[in-house]
């Protein structure tokens, strides 16, 4: 009987340890954000008048207050580099203050596009 109880307790400890490890590993590897967070970041970026489009948005959650992301935005190629940089720099800072996500924005210059 003692052997059976010992095996049962061992299995409970192994099961609990596995679940704790699984949750910890998910946080360390970076979890995908919620759909609500993705939509919030996309709409925040797209409301800027100079942004023509966005793609390749990636956000990883590494625990409370540790979300890191990157995104490509399309700006007109006629914008001066300094102006384009100031636009994305402001968006990065605004996203950080509004959502807590530390995001890096890559600029893709595009030719003249008419928004519909």
Automatic annotation (TrEMBL):
<dbReference type="InterPro" id="IPR027470">
    <property type="entry name" value="Cation_efflux_CTD"/>
</dbReference>
<keyword id="KW-0813">Transport</keyword>
<dbReference type="Pfam" id="PF16916">
    <property type="entry name" value="ZT_dimer"/>
</dbReference>
<dbReference type="GO" id="GO:0016020">
    <property type="term" value="C:membrane"/>
</dbReference>
<protein>
    <submittedName>
        <fullName>Ferrous-iron efflux pump FieF</fullName>
    </submittedName>
</protein>
<dbReference type="InterPro" id="IPR050291">
    <property type="entry name" value="CDF_Transporter"/>
</dbReference>
<dbReference type="GO" id="GO:0008324">
    <property type="term" value="F:monoatomic cation transmembrane transporter activity"/>
</dbReference>
<dbReference type="InterPro" id="IPR036837">
    <property type="entry name" value="Cation_efflux_CTD_sf"/>
</dbReference>
<feature type="domain" description="Cation efflux protein cytoplasmic">
    <location>
        <begin position="33"/>
        <end position="109"/>
    </location>
</feature>
């Amino acid at each position: 009987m003692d052997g059976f109880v010992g095996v049962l307790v061992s299995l409970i400890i192994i099961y609990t340890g596995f679940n704790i490890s699984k949750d910890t590993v998910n946080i360390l590897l970076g979890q995908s954000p919620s759909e609500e967070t993705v939509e919030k970041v996309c709409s925040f970026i797209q409301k800027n008048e100079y942004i023509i489009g966005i793609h390749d948005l990636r956000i990883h959650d590494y625990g409370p207050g540790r979300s890191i992301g990157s995104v490509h935005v399309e700006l007109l190629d006629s914008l001066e580099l300094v102006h384009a940089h100031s636009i994305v720099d402001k968006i990065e800072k605004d996203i950080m203050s509004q959502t807590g996500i530390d995001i890096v924005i890559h600029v893709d210059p595009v030719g003249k596009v008419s928004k519909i």
